Amino acid sequence: MLVYLRVFKESFSFALNALKNNKLRTFLSLTGVTVGIFSIIAVLAAVDSLDRNIKENLSGLDKNTIYLTKFSFGPTDIPRWKRDNFPQTEYDAFDFVRRSVPDIDAVAYTIFGSTETIRYQAETVSGVGIDAVSNEIYNINDFKVEKGRFYGESESESGAPVIVLGYTIAENLFGNSNPLGKKVRAYGRKLTVIGVLKKFGASIFDSPDEKAFVPANFVRRFRNGGASGLPGAIIIKPSSDVEISSFEQVLKQKFRTFRGLKAGEDDNFFINKISGFVSAVDSVISGMNIIGWIISGFSLLVGGFGIANIMFVSVKERTNLIGIQKSLGAKNRFILFQFLFEAVILAVVGGLIGLLFVWITANIMNGVVGEDFEFVLSFGNMFLGFGLSTFIGLISGVIPAISASKLDPVEAIRTGM
């Protein structure tokens, strides 16, 4: 055992000296592996970070939440021209669903609209996404009121001119003063602030901090509905104890009846589940991972070929030395380990430098992007980078090392001379 440890130690020391004596060659070899490892780990870390941020933003939602609307949230076989002719999901459809479909915990109606400008005296906030939605959204979405209250059923039904502000919007309009009861202007109309949401934090989707909420029936007074009007959706949170596939079938049949669709006619609506959106995201993430591996793999392959090429050159240059070592009693395994260690050290050091560059890049991106997106270099990806670089070193160095260990000492000395 001690003999093998001594062989390892001497081989390792000899490899280090060889690398120090050929600094330019070592640098060029390191560059190839560094670029390869950086490419793979950077891509994997970026994809993992995107996946993590999306999942965190969806974690507060019930995965069984359903959006019933004319739009599909994922790929569909129905042609575009046909989808464009689907009827809008209007308020009467929402009223039918909440009265007729059983096993519902909460159901809300929302109108998709454009961004608006909110004004209070001399203060103005532009580009605010105002959600025109019925009061039940508060029981579906993952946000809480910090000041005041959310509008109730009577205000929602009557379309009262009230508004609930996101944390950041309230802060920009009112600063440290109390916004409750104040009048703001949006849609060219005055609305009374009755609540401010608790700070939600950064989100890759629209954060509630940057939004405002008004009753859907308030917007329906002055915004056109129908085929040419603003599109709407019914947001449904099924009961927790219901079997979701059975619920979907009941919902589908009842809504087909409401729409007057006959047997054999295609649906003119889509039932979109949050869980389906999550599955679509997982599919996209998997595809991005595969593409990242393919693209980055070429970089790593070039790095591996670079190491192999350098090692063959090293064997050629040191043929005379190898012959002298073997003539003095060096075993084949000593020569083998000597060159193998040299290749592995090159690859591992290159891999570590690549990981360092990824870490630096991650910190720079987090500083630039801020709280909106967190770029994370996980331990798993770091271990993968280290493992890949070691593997590349072994694969790239094994053939040159074997060829060196099998050299005949007499022929090696003669060739070197």
From TrEMBL:
It comes from the Bacteria. Coiled coil: none annotated. Residues 26-253 form the MacB-like periplasmic core domain. It is a multi-pass membrane protein. Pfam families: FtsX (PF02687), MacB_PCD (PF12704). Keywords: Cell membrane, Membrane, Transmembrane, Transmembrane helix. The keyword Transmembrane applies. It is found in: Cell membrane. The chain crosses the membrane at residues 27-47, 290-313, 334-362, 382-404. Residues 293-409 form the ABC3 transporter permease C-terminal domain. Belongs to the ABC-4 integral membrane protein family. This is ABC transporter permease.
